[in-house]
TrEMBL record:
The keyword Oxidoreductase is annotated on this UniProt entry: yes
Protein name (database record): 3-ketoacyl-ACP reductase
Annotated ranges, domain Ketoreductase: 6-172
EC number(s) given by UniProt: 1.1.1.100
Listed SUPFAM superfamilies: NAD(P)-binding Rossmann-fold domains
Source species: Chryseobacterium piperi
Protein's UniProt keywords contain Protease: no
Family: Belongs to the short-chain dehydrogenases/reductases (SDR) family.
Highest taxon in the source lineage: Bacteria
């Protein structure tokens, strides 16, 4: 399907996976608005997107603040002239044992990764409902499919995102909204490299561009086709 002229919002679009997705969609002719907390990254990325020749805008807010998410999404929807696609990508990875991780950190991971996805989807839904169709891509993780040592907060948050996303799909597909739950394995980014999960070697390890091409291709499928769930792994890291 040609997605040229559609309007997308990518949360966490100023760096990492979100930035790669924003640029890949812009290269398809999609107008892309991005969100995050770091205004400089957002401004620089908006410039890159505009240089591709599409419309772009940004909003600065933390996804754990419902009122700020709603205000930011509504402002971006107005600037773009509507929303067709939400990529719910913003997230944090904090790793450590259950015993040692402070409860505040544990709560913040859940608040950012789970509530962030919920707030952004809830804010975008009225625009998709009004249009009579749309797409929501929720970025979970293979960590959400199975918990493991030193990742209790992250794995629990992503397991909850998978479940939330499945509920969204059940409720919203009747309005022609495709809710897509993605569970990528380790991809080279600030999160995975600083978290010690990978050295990010581009010869072997998935790069943000690989993830972005995958998301782009899923969104380009004929609207009758819904990729409900999907995983992506490095072949031989
Ligand atoms: N990399 C991997 O191996 C991997 C694997 C599976 C799933 N994922 C998931 O993919 C998504 C992107 O991860 P990444 O690897 O690109 O991580 P990253 O490089 O650390 O980037 C995280 C992004 O999320 C935004 N963000 C974080 N906390 C936020 C908050 N409270 N409010 C608003 N924005 C916030 C950041 O923007 P600001 O800095 O501007 O706030 C940044 O754009 C995450 O949901 C992650 O869990 C990653």
């Amino acid at each position: 399907m040609n997605i040229k002229g559609k309007n997308a919002i990518v949360t966490g679009g100023g760096r990492g996976l979100g930035k790669a997705v924003a640029l890949a969609l812009a290269n398809e002719g999609v107008n892309v608005a991005i969100t995050g907390r770091n205004e400089k990254n957002l401004k620089d990325t908006v410039e890159e997107i505009k240089n591709i020749g599409v419309n772009s805008a940004y909003a600065t807010f933390s996804v754990d603040d419902e009122a700020a998410v709603k205000k930011g999404i509504e402002s971006l929807a107005e600037q773009l002239g509507g929303v067709d696609i939400l990529v719910n990508n913003a997230g944090i990875g904090d790793f450590g044992s259950i015993e040692e991780m402070p409860s505040e950190t544990w709560e913040q991971v859940i608040k950012t990764n789970l509530f962030g996805v919920y707030y952004a989807a809830k804010a975008v839904y009225p625009f998709l409902k009004e249009k009579g169709e749309g797409d929501i891509v929720n970025v979970a993780s293979t960590a959400g499919l199975k918990g493991g040592g030193n990742m209790s907060a992250y794995a629990a948050s992503k397991a909850a995102v998978i479940s939330l996303s499945q509920s969204m799909m059940a409720e919203w597909r009747k309005q022609n909204i495709r809710v897509i739950t993605l569970t990528p394995s380790t991809i080279a980014s600030d999160m995975s490299i600083q978290g010690g999960l990978t050295d990010g070697n581009p010869e072997k390890v998935l790069q943000p561009e690989d993830f972005a091409e995958w998301v782009r291709d899923i969104l380009k499928m004929n609207r009758r086709a819904l990729i409900a769930n999907g995983s992506i792994f490095s072949t031989n890291p």
